[in-house]
């Protein structure tokens, strides 16, 4: 009962904020408005506007040195992002913001020691290499995973080959630029997108997509074995309480995007990854979207902090050739002002299984409002080919703000 009231309240609060933002931005809301499914978007132009760089992270190096070559080169954009975030806080309330920033810069960094290795040392290494206060690097790395709006799809083609694709949308409610019709944080993140190859002894162990300075994995794959993405699951009784417990000294739960790094590092099969992602206690609720390397191996794991509430699987024998997940439990209706599920599924249905592939999936993920002002990138993965392609995304007006 209490849970129900709290989630109704949180959905209500989100709705009010969302409508307020829409009003400010001068956009007309029309949940029934239908966009044509995009076609011919793949491959996107070979320009810096769409392409992302590739870096190697050598797992044989001490954790503190692994990210140095990347973050030194990208320090300016990380500082810029953090500055935008601080400006956003100051605009809300100058005095509270200064107190908060002061706490982050001078006290929060100590909590890095409560993270498991190698994550603690990696974060310390990034702070040292860039000169950015440890507390700010830590905040960037943990704050991030709780507020991403996303769409993930796992699908198989008629031959039983598995594909996995996702949009990563981030920056909701953090500073709407009235002049440019953009989200300030989203714009700052886009130039920081990169593909990473994690190597051991010169060989690729796994691949992931990230933002410079962010060490967790939200999108990744182990070539020949599995593909994985994470979508945020909102729940008032989940994330925030988990973080408060952690701040108060209970460090028994795992961070959502560190568990995925663990899974990518150590898993040897789809089945093993599925069990781990279903069972490990988490700091925040989440959706894990997982694909294997064999027909039928694909699922959406809906996680509470404690356990898997539901595992929603492909079933090619029964005509279920894809699963599409946004930020709402699949057995419930999405928030009506944020329905990316219906247009996404409509376009998947229209694409048909015959056209499952990078082009088909990229078109679906380039259709508004699946593509919106928060979308930073689209990633495409094919496990047997070991292929991971990432493209920066842009949504030209008229476009939904989320
Ligand atoms: C951080 O840790 C150091 C070393 O343990 C300690 O001296 C310092 O007081 C701590 N700072 C805070 C704010 O807890
Ligand atoms: C808004 O757009 C203008 C012109 O394209 C650009 O110079 C400016 O930096 C943008 N503002 C932000 C906050 O991105
Ligand atoms: C699929 O993964 C399993 C390990 O989970 C591996 O034994 C098998 O060779 C892989 N198959 C392909 C086609 O890569
Ligand atoms: C897409 O197809 C599935 C399976 O036939 C169906 O359940 C679903 O309602 C369709 N969704 C849309 C939005 O067309």
UniProtKB/TrEMBL annotation:
Gene designation: LOC106155763
Q: Which organism is it from?
A: Lingula anatina
Keywords from UniProt, A to Z, are: Disulfide bond, Glycoprotein, Hydrolase, Lipid metabolism, Lysosome, Secreted, Signal, Sphingolipid metabolism, Zymogen
Identification of the protein by name: Acid ceramidase
Question: Quick check: keyword Ubl conjugation in the entry?
Answer: no
The EC category is hydrolase
Stretches assigned to the Acid ceramidase N-terminal domain: 51-92
Q: Which GO terms describe its biological process?
A: fatty acid metabolic process; sphingolipid metabolic process
List the InterPro entries.
Answer: Acid_ceramidase-like, Acid_ceramidase_N, CBAH/NAAA_C
Which PANTHER family does this entry report, sorted A to Z? Answer: ACID AMIDASE, ACID CERAMIDASE
